[in-house]
Amino acid sequence: MKAIVTIVVLFLFLCSCSDKEALDKYDKYGNLIVYNSQVYSEMWIKDRNLKVTVIDTFCINEKRRAVEDIKRGKLICFDFQPLGHQKFVKLLSKHGIEFEEHLRSCVRLGGFEPYCYQDEMYREINRKFGEGFIDSLSEVAKKEFVLENPEMEYMEDGIDLREKYKVK
């Protein structure tokens, strides 16, 4: 009798496992569910007309991590400052904001968002300090750098910033 009960329990356990896997692999329309951009790109190379449902778990986790960091008072500005970097970092630190150098790519695979942590931090900085705050600090840092280094060419958008800031 114990053997029969054990076999029935094992059978039910195995059946429940296989049903769960099917639910995790396909959405209610029969589209394959893809959880990360690497798997998506591998599949897309093989079939560019592939219909999938994207669940971006990386982005979900990165947003959660950013929200937790923000609650603890941590703010990070992600930017690229080739010259005047230290001046920009110093200006940010006066407001309790850390700096991490970051170059963004325009490439985005499917429905995957590659910069969720960075975007969440940027939104919080804008919410707390106002739109354009980072840009204005960046301008101040560039101007200070150019004025302190008048012999050094600083080109931005085809313009030498020494001309913009009237450096003689």
Output the strand order for the largest sheet: 1-2
How far apart are the termini?
Answer: 98 Å
Let me know the largest β-sheet.
Answer: 2 strands, parallel
- As a whole number of angstroms, the C-alpha radius of gyration is 26 Å
Order of helices and strands: HEHEHEHEHHEEH
Helix content: 40-55%
Shape: elongated
Our count of helices gives: 7
- According to DSSP, the number of beta strands is 6
**Poorly predicted spans:** 8-14, 16-23
Structural class: mainly alpha
Name the average pLDDT: 83
Range of strand content: 5-15%
In short:
The protein is 55% helix and 12% strand. The chain is mostly helical. The chain has a domain at 57-164.
Structural account:
The strands form three sheets. Strands 1-2 form a two-stranded parallel sheet. It has a two-stranded parallel sheet with strand order 3-4. It has a two-stranded antiparallel ribbon with strand order 5-6. It has 168 residues and is mainly alpha-helical. The longest helix has 24 residues, at 2-25. It is built from seven helices and six strands. The N and C termini lie far apart (98 Å).
Question: Which key features would you list for this structure?
Answer:
mainly alpha, 7 helices, two-stranded parallel ribbon, single chain
Q: How is the secondary structure organized here?
A:
Elements: H1 2-25, E1 32-34, H2 37-46, E2 52-54, H3 57-71, E3 75-79, H4 85-93, E4 97-101, H5 116-129, H6 133-148, E5 155-156, E6 159-160, H7 161-164
Parallel strand pairs: 1-2, 3-4
Antiparallel strand pairs: 5-6
Helix pairs in contact: 3-5, 4-6
